[in-house]
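Justification of computing resources. Each target in the renewal requires a structure prediction run like the one illustrated here; the chain below, 342 residues long, is used simply to show the kind of job we budget for.
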Amino acid sequence: MLKISRKRCAEYRWRLRGEIAPVKQMRTNMHANAPRPCRFSLWFSVAALMLLHLAPVRGQDVGVPIMAPGLDAAPQNTYPNAMYYQALEIYREGDLATAAEAFDAALGRCRRDINGRWIDAIPVHAMMAECFYQAGDLPSAVEHIDAAMTLVVRHRGWLSSLDWRDAMIAAVRVPDTTSAWAAPNLPSIIPLNDRMKLGTGSADVVGQLQRGGVFESFRLTTIDAVEVMRGAAIAAYRRRVIFGDLAGEFEAAEQVLEATKYPSGLDIPYARALIGSMRGCERFAGGQDEETLQDADRSANVGGAIHPITPLVLLAAARVKARQDDFAAAGPIAIQAAIAAS
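Resulting structure tokens:
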């Protein structure tokens, strides 16, 4: 009897239902492009693999494998959509071609209005870029990175519309030190909500009508805001890795930082840590190395507890130290990044 894996069955179902728009030449590129030599030492490779192929840290029950939120039972009409989390699962299984097709399907389901795509497309573009980067197609990777950064700038200020009081859902979770390769060095984890309330539109009906343009009444939208921020951080981090010394020519760097500045009056430590870590990756993308180190030092953890963007900002800091030839500092930071991603 022919046995087909669950992943392949899902792919066949998507194809039969016509829900996947094939990513052209993705499979060809995977075989045609030989792996590029890594310029960094082994611990960077380990940290990068742990970071990009393991799931983000989220608040879950002790003893349950840490997975992307909603992967096992994502509700409908979520932002990002359920297809995105299914694509993440395929990506982490190592099937880049199928993952790219699934992310492309997820992109087609992202919210759109007269102004184009919404912020739920940011992590989708970021992961599409990761698929192309891993396959050696750098032009396509940069195209999706720039698309993600464009959305960050276009939707500036959305962080101020979040209800940050709902972000943390329980007390800091002490990890199971027997369940991972890094035991007993695993840090505590901040359990974050993957469904936060975001206010969109405007309650000023008269003012909007007087100003003209598109009218959208005020409403509360449920969104996985942490995953959106993580997507922005991934795109920014990968851009610097690709461009290297040309990072200083990232003309939109200041616009991206302006679009993701701290909301006025925000004094919630874990919220500031999440935003600070994302901004650290954005500073890394813009070649602001010293500021990257400062953001990593301030925001990588909260009282020793980590969050989903901790691995990214630590890996950015490790690369900065390596570029400064401070390998004695770079190595331990990269190992911390790998542990945080485990």
